[in-house]
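Risk register update: the risk of archive-format incompatibility is retired. Evidence:
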Amino acid sequence: GLRKAVDDGHLSFAFIDLLFPEPVSFTSRTYQEATAQHGLTPGDVQLIHEAVGLPVPEMEDRVREDDEAMFPIGQMVKGMGMDSSVMARVLRVYGENMRRVAQAEPQFYHAYIEEPMVASGMSETQMRELASQLSTQLLQQAESLILWLYRRHREHFTMEHLVEHAESALEQAGLTPPREAKPPAIAFLDLVGYTRLTEEQGDDAAAELAASLGGFVQSHSRRHGGRPVKWLGDGVMFYFPSAEEAVRCALEMVREAPAAGLPQAHVGVNAGSVVFRDGDYFGRTVNIAARIAAQAGAGQVLVSEDIASLGEPDGISYRELGSFVLKGLAEPATLFAAASAAEAHSA
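Archived output:
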């Protein structure tokens, strides 16, 4: 079947040599031998592979050349005295994020390179051979892009971390006045009618909507010092160092979502201590923010009493709505509707 498809011009494997010009070979060592030489155990090898999302090899298998990099990393981590569970958590962050990038690339490639070529009238064979030539260039650029972005983001967050330590040291030495402790904020934004849209227009339309939402929330949250933490299909979770800016951003996004071609949105915001682990935020503050968002109606921004107790920022007002029973909380919570001064006046 494959031979006939190739002979008839329906299928081409010309791309294989272009995509994989230097096939990965195997070393003469088995995983058992390499593990012993680096002071690791079979359990370490299994843990590392599972954490980064790769198939676990048999210890009798020969080591792939590119897998050689795993052993010095594992040896160094163990030499630092890092617990295996901690090593797994660290590796999982790298593995999950790189997997997402790698998984998205073929979809981008298919949607934005292959499909337009076929739509222009090319046969499958013509498309495959031309696209494969582009692929080698794209792969090189993609790897450069990944390294560049990693270094830039690492620079930003490392500097942020060092500044925090320097400020704390100056405070403890009495060289600067103590900073006013202000709690960070967590916000959840959800789109109204996302499920209905999926039913009416299909999964592709819903996926495009989610992509549009991504660009929308990134630009808005960045302007207010915040950032999206994770995507939840029809919604987004945010972290903001400033509760005031979280509310400003929430009002802005709710107001401007329809003009950006998005359905109406609603947002819940809460302030308080959070725990940052493995690139995500956890704790009671996060849970309550999610519950508040579930109470908000279309076009509405609801905030907790912890937010309202910080005072009304310039140009923003809070209107008490009463007590609400939120899932998972033992006591009812008082919620407030946030509005810009202009919106509050017109109401």
